[in-house]
Amino acid sequence: MCYAASRPSLRGRPANPIERTTLTKPTENPALDEQQAQALMESARAARGFAYAPYSRFPVGAALLADDGTVVTGCNVENASYGLTNCAERTAIFKAVSEGRTTFRAIAVVGPQDDLACAPCGACRQVLYEFGPEMVLVTPAGPNQPGGVRMTTVGALLPGAFDGTDLPALAEEG
Ligand SMILES: [Zn+2]
């Protein structure tokens, strides 16, 4: 059996993986309006321009809206080791925290194509959750709504998440 034949096939997957996720269920009362979400998405698209993705050629941009109104952007930063690659969402979070911001209203994420949603990976969902399950995630609405955005919450993306309250010392104090 040749190697190629033994690999799992990705054919047959939906063209847009977002259709398989809870992102198809928009949040009912998002903490930001359509205009704010569009502006945040525009910042994410601009940040995507700085992506360092020579290996995957899959540039991603993120824009994080802090409670004080500051927008902190991030892009994916790849590495020849592959495993040390950092996603756009985590780049934005780590930048923001390192600048003294730890409370956020929303994050917009966009992949290579403007109208295709780019779902945060599991690692990013966990890191975003640390800073609030109610944080709004803004993504492109999909090819059927060019220029549109969709909103959900980080909590909806990671039900039953592990967080600080799961740590015994904190649970006893609380
Ligand atoms: Zn990620």
Class by helix and strand content? alpha+beta
CATH topology: Cytidine Deaminase, domain 2
Query: What ligands can be seen in this structure?
Result: zinc ion
Strand order of the largest sheet: 2-1-3-4-5
Q: Overview of this structure, please?
A:
It is a single chain. With 174 residues, the protein is an alpha+beta fold. It has one domain (15-153): Cytidine Deaminase, domain 2 (3-Layer(aba) Sandwich), CATH 3.40.140. It has six helices and five strands; from the N terminus they run ααββαβαββαα. A hairpin with an 8-residue loop joins strand 4 (136-140) and strand 5. The model is unreliable at 1-6 and 16-22 (pLDDT under 50). The chain binds zinc ion.
Would you kindly provide a brief summary of this structure?
The protein starts with a helix and ends with a helix. The chain is built from 6 helices and 5 strands, in the order ααββαβαββαα. The protein is of the alpha+beta class and 174 residues long.
What is the topological layout?
Blueprint lengths: L2 H4 L27 H15 L12 E6 L4 E5 L12 H11 L5 E7 L11 H9 L5 E5 L8 E5 H4 L10 H6 L1
Zinc ion binds next to helix 4.
